Description:
heterodimer, A: mainly beta, 13 strands, B: mainly beta, 7-stranded mixed β-sheet, globular
Amino acid sequence: DIVMTQSPDSLAVSLGERATITCKSSQSLLYNSNNKNYLAWYQQKPGQPPKLLISWASTRESGVPDRFSGGGSGTDFTLTISSLQAEDVAVYYCQQYYDWVTFGQGTRLEIK
Amino acid sequence: QVQLQESGPGLVKPSETLSLTCTVSGGSVSENNYYWSWIRQSPGKGLEWIGYIYHSGTTNYSPSLKSRVTISVDTSKNHFSLKLSSVTAADTALYYCARQVEVHSGFFDSWGQGTLVTVSS
């Protein structure tokens, strides 16, 4: 299995400040034939299912605010919120879909 | 916009079979390019993919659960179902159905609200 490890487990950021979450995979998620990284990011608010934010490591879903951005390649990826808003409080998960499906353990994002 | 809704018993006895159904609206389980999946979430194990089915009936299951899982689809009713046999307390979780985009193993672009299943006598 590909193991996905997120850091930190929890994060407190002031409103308007930048938040960055890291996700590392135990093997590369870059598929050489199409040069795409098979990595997605989700946001889960209390009492709700996860919501897809980003696929292909950096492609934002329709309707997702542009303050959310994904980056990285291979085994190291980031989710960045450029200016934290109150509604961004949630748990964030990364997921690889290169080989089977595995999720990171989640990062809880709170307001400082 | 596709919507998914899980249904089924919230309490299952140990050693029995957990059975859930996911009804799809605003879309069709017969659509190409999508798998129809089950995922569970528990405090101890986080998010765990269980498996998926394609409208053709092709299935793919998590290796860790494969011996106990069956996923089926009924295109006439536009729903798909999960059966998990020989359950134990470790199978207590919030169970989600989701639409999985058909690229390699796929990512999940639509989710149901989830249904809590408790395994207890």
